[in-house]
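Regression report. Comparing outputs from two consecutive submissions.

Submission 1:
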Amino acid sequence: MSEDTIGWIGAGRMGAAMARRLISAGNDVTVTNRTRAKAEDLGAKVVNTPGDLADRDVVFIMVSANDDLLEVTSGPQGVLSNPDYAPKVLIDCSTVSTETSAAVRAAAAERGTQFLAAPVSGNPKVVQSGGLTMAVSGTPEAFDIVEPYMNQICKGVTYVGDDEVARLVKICHNMMLGIVTQAMAEVTVLAEKGGVKRSAWLNFLNDSVVGSRFTRYKTPAFVNLDFTPTFTPVLLRKDFDLGMHAAYEHDVPMPLSALCTELVKASAGAGYAQDDFAVLLLEAARGAGLEMVAENIVVDDGLGS
């Protein structure tokens, strides 16, 4: 059980899965969420607003967008709005812009609160399986305080530096996901058009030296053409755009990433905006004149039940 009192802001699918791990570890966790019922489902103490968590030692945040992060931190009922109290450390696990993150960091500093940017890689099923990873930036002193709690949520926690560099790490990570998925889509189409059963090719790939946890995780979508979204082409395109902007700022040539940016953009424009970005497979098949059919078989995603 923790020595610190912990607050949690955001009980959506991802936030709830992460908060459950802290609660299950025996920590003193208090939760708030815009829809109170979602917070109550966690079985922890619940408060009405982020401002009610101002007296917590450590507060985690998992929200959807830039404006949401500003609202729950420096807004009228934000966690930094209480004139008498403010958390020792504020940890944002959301995927937001560097500019928004820097603004919240400055607002926290005015209240004497340390701020850590801590974006994560995974989805609720990955969280439940214990496979979540996290990149963290801010002061080493703040990281030392909260690292034990992060390790209760994640399989891997990496301190990457000061200020907002964790945001760049997350963008680079998501660009890599897009590039790998596009490559996986192209070679899968080639194998199938050459007469190889899709599931057989992917089974070989996943067992080979170039297979990975990610390729195995995406295999059920590729085999059964189930594109229930974990991450949409629209969101992936946003990260590619941010990454290409960073590449311009740092004078880094990224020809492969530039091409993938356009391919991801095309997949969103082709009617797949609300599907999983694994639809890159369908676009690769369309370009090859291949009509794909779901195999409808049970495929291990590598995450366990």
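Submission 2:
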Amino acid sequence: MPLRIQIVGPAAPGSRTGNRVTAQRWRNVLGSLGHNVRVTTAYDGRDVDLLIALHARKSALAVRAFRKAHPTRPLIVALTGTDLYRDLPKNRSALCSLELADRLVLLQPAGRAALPREARRKARVIYQSVEPPKRRRTPVRDAFEVCVIGHLRSVKDPFRTALAARRLPDSSRIRVIQIGGALQPRMESRARDEEQRNGRYQWIGEQSRARTLHRLARSRLMVISSRMEGGANVVGEAATLGIPILASRVAGNVGLLGPRHPGYFEFGDTLALRDLLIRAETEPGFYRRLRQTSERIAPLFRPARERRDWHSLLNTLRGKG
């Protein structure tokens, strides 16, 4: 029997931030399972069978309002990186959302360690699936392209790869392609300035998801340099395409790539990232090991798996309410 589901998230319609992209994808996944799904930025009081709140702190008002209106109906809270690695365990609004939820959705298994012990039994991991392009792009021959994807926000440490590229030897063919919108004027100025100062760097701004995937598919490497991540979708995209990954050693990245991945650098360590870039370009064995991680984790992001996991989760809640 179809459920009436409302997904509440903090990102406005038309936004291409990670939260909105996640909410829209979940709407499509749950719709493919036969459910009736709406995405909103607040709980509007309409009669629904299930609420999914994306972001424990920012959607806390919606969580409380739904629970007050429907004390026995199922409520799922999906946790972001800022929930797990900044707001918990001290933010009262986030903690209240955890207490009121019937289930908590995580995007990678390492997130359980950031939860209060009493909340861990509620947690379920659902990996964000990826539909890869039907045709694989051929890497350019005149450069070793490195892709960096994400809006230009300080939490992403967006220019770390560009700074590392400045320190590469003259013999290197590495070229950094940065994709993502500048959410603040100072970030756009920084990107423009970097292009002028750094011949290895190009910022192409915000792109559609299809164009982003096509550009990633022709790259030889992806770098994710964030300070915190809940479980970045770009990791799944790169893995699905077989693109090797270099990543900051933060919990959200380790939760997806695994503790033995050879491509970690400490957050903010420009020289360590430079050394990994050099190794990826010049050492075939190291590059092969990076690619093996992507190949190993790629099955986690299959659409059929995400549909199956959501179907299983909803079935466990059908008896409630």
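Expected: both submissions complete independently.
Actual: both completed, but the second showed a warning that disappeared on reload.
Relevant detail on submission 2: The chain has a mean pLDDT of 94.
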